Amino acid sequence: MRGNVISFRRYLERRRARRRADLAGRARTGSYRRLWTLSLDRLAEYLIAHKGDDAMDDLKIEAPVGQPFMTMTRIFNAPRALVWKALSQPEHAARWWGPHDHKNRVLQWDWRVGGKWRIESTLPDGMVIVFFGEYREIKEPVKVTQTFSFDQLPEGTHSVDMVELDEVDGKTIYRATSTLPDVESRDAMIASGMETGVREGFERLQAMLEDWKATAE
Q: What is the pLDDT of residues 114-168, one digit of tens each?
């Protein structure tokens, strides 16, 4: 990663320092933030181990210093209507969610403001993670805002994710802003290896969009 995106190596160094401090008996504050970080460790171990060496696409992740949010931008070679279809319909979302070798099952998908969503994702090693959230804003076909969490985090712990879609010359500019409870939680989420999951999920999404375009021709 470049710029302000924190590397996994730096994350591990920070985690080791914290653990040494705990073993030494130093009192720590912020248990809410610590639980978020610890819950992400299992995801980090898997995603970093499976990170590929493929050439970078145009995915851009930015994390402003001192701010509890991050932004993700990517251009999809497909019209906005198709990207919106892939985001809003459960049978399609299950096909592209997460890394290539994840198997997904939609448990709940109430696509309306105040509605809940829930996706079960099974990793190759048998580990099962349930992701879930609530829709807070839907403006078809340009914007959706939802909360995001998973079942290993304490109740009430989540990010707020806003996705905006703009169409330019038949292509779609995807912009997402994820706001975390605090800067430490934001840094832990980035360091967890989430870039791999996002990148491979977007690769799956682009492949699905290409199939749809070919069928329509």
A: 999 999 999 999 999 999 999 999 999 999 999 999 988 888 889 999 999 999 9
Q: In this structure, are residues 82 and 206 in contact, taking their beta carbons and an 8 Å threshold?
A: no
Which positions ≥6 away from 22 have C-beta within 8 Å?
Answer: 28
Tokens of residue 208, six digits: 């699905």
> Would you say the C-alpha torsion 32, 33, 38, 40 has a positive or negative sign?
positive
In 3D space, the residue among 165, 169, 176 whose CA is nearest the CA of residue 198 turns out to be: 176
| pLDDT given at position 114 | 98
Query: Is the peptide bond preceding residue 141 cis, with omega within 30 degrees of 0?
Result: yes
pLDDT in tens, 9-18: 444 455 555 5
Token representation of residue 103: 């198997």
The residue count for the chain: 217
Annotate 178-195 with b (16+ C-beta within 10 A) or e (fewer): bbbbebbbbbbbbbbbbb
Name which of 209, 202, 212 is nearest 57 in CA terms.
Answer: 202
The 10s digit of each residue's pLDDT in 17-74 is: 555 544 433 333 344 455 455 445 544 444 444 444 343 368 999 999 999 999 999 9
Structural contact between residues 79 and 130, judged by C-beta atoms closer than 8 angstroms:
no
Residue 151 phi/psi, 5-degree rounding, is -70, -5
CA distance 131 to 150: 4
